[in-house]
């Protein structure tokens, strides 16, 4: 059955298929990824470094890593893979790929600045403000490390899964930490944010590639991109860009992995 799914499905987000009651987790009404997504030109050499897994194992991995950076398993499993937070820099990179870049992409350590630390601390309050902004029409759920068995060398850790009516999507929070320090109004701080233009996420920014990767891997087709300054927030619903993913991002990411992770 799995083989037929891999043969017939294209590696793009698909409509959510209802799961039997026994398959549901206690805290999340769907399991991620929602589909085993595939692309026919993915060569078997991409499934090395112990990345291959079944859909059941992928569901268990996501459920067991919802603490994200506080989970040892989360760190270990993501270190084997290209992760969505790096997709933009990989796809857009024009400079030569040097050892420093490879160490940052494949290493298991991350630089954490003061502003980044505040962003982590602010995530939960920002999500609460987002729920208030949506006037309670959404329910949010923690999310762990998503890996799709179709292309298991890629991974993503969305900030939240969002339920709105009978639809599911993702949420990604970005905190304007410097704006909080300056105590700027949200509108003013958004005007100065380099990744926004006219209060919308720039389509050539790494954050745009990040959320596109999150959607492709999870199988969900929209993401609410939340901008928060520690006091107020705004959100933009970003749809999945199939052409960008299929024709640009996926081939580039697989080539990068083959060249720089599959050596030897």
From TrEMBL:
Gene3D superfamilies: 3.90.320.10. It holds the Pfam family YqaJ. CDD domains: PDDEXK_lambda_exonuclease-like. Residues 74-219 form the YqaJ viral recombinase domain. One of its GO terms (biological process) is DNA repair. This is YqaJ viral recombinase domain-containing protein.
